[in-house]
Amino acid sequence: MTKKIIILGSNGFIGTNLTRSFSLNPSYEVRGYSSKVCDLLSPKSIENALSGISSDDAIIMASSITRFKENTYNSMMKNIAMAENIGAFVERHRAGYFIFLSTVDVYGFIEGKISEELLPQPRDHYAVSKFSSEFILKNYCFKGNVPLLILRLSGVYGPGDHDKSTINYIIESISAKQRGAIWGDGKDKRDFVYVDDIYRVINMAIDKKTEMTLNIATGRSYSINEIFEIIKCYYRGKFVVEYKPREKPTERVKDMVYDISLFKKTFPDFKFIDLKEGISLYLKKEGAAG
């Protein structure tokens, strides 16, 4: 039986990749909605776009105003309003499954390994909006008896990731002037997930209707300097690192390292794409290496 997948925010970086990947899977009927077709700030627009939803359908919410676009009180309130509106709709119409793409930024300044057991301490408008949205959706899905999966994503990279990740920033700087630009000293450690892995996780979760809050990270963090060394191997010629002083204090801790024990327990057979392999796939699909 074909399952219907509704992807909200289908024209964004992650939404575009999810729409493409699910469309290639014959098990699914995929419907992607951009904000022009389904404006989550308008309850009427949601009703018009999603009126035919059934208890067999899964909704993936990839919609948000990201911090790259705006990170203000106004954008925070809009993100929260979107969660409120779609949550109320899902409760009324009893969707079969709801998946919300959140962020590890909800944890704030956490030293040491980050796990789902930690109390979130969001430190900026974007992180507050995501944590608030989690709470709102939990409330509506509980009242509507709709299984809810919250995925707190670490850094995501891949095709179409333009100006949205450190990896893309390094690739763009090398491609433009054969010089890798890095903010700070490059020693900060980050955990990056290839965008196709988000699809693979969700695909497995839909089969089980997994209901929980889960961090999505590989469990292996690399320094920015290490990432630069991996990327430059795919380019001809010699490259130097251009270290730039931070324009303002970082909003994150120096090293972001994750305890993925809960993920391994939930999906014991899942293997994340290694960073070296992911960067290779990224460059081939973007045609960026040379």
Task: Give the tags.
six-stranded parallel β-sheet; globular; 9 helices; single chain; Rossmann fold; 2 domains; UDP-galactose 4-epimerase, domain 1; alpha/beta; 290 residues; 20% strand; 39% helix; two-stranded parallel sheet
Report on this structure:
This protein is α/β, with parallel strands linked by helices and 290 residues long. It has two domains: 3-155 and 192-216, 3-Layer(aba) Sandwich (Rossmann fold), CATH 3.40.50.720; 162-190 and 221-256 and 274-286, UDP-galactose 4-epimerase, domain 1 (Alpha-Beta Complex), CATH 3.90.25.10. It contains nine helices and 14 strands. It has helices spanning 13-23, 43-50, 73-93, 125-144, 166-177, 195-208, 224-232, 261-266, 275-286; strands at 3-8, 28-33, 58-61, 97-103, 113-114, 148-153, 155-157, 179-183, 189-190, 192-194, 212-216, 222-223, 240-244, 257-258. The strands form five sheets. The protein has a six-stranded parallel β-sheet with strand order 2-1-3-4-6-11, sandwiched between helices. Strands 5-14 form a two-stranded parallel sheet. Helix 1 (13-23) packs across helix 6, helix 3 (73-93) runs parallel beside helix 4 (125-144) and helix 5 crosses helix 7. The protein is globular, with a radius of gyration of 19 Å.
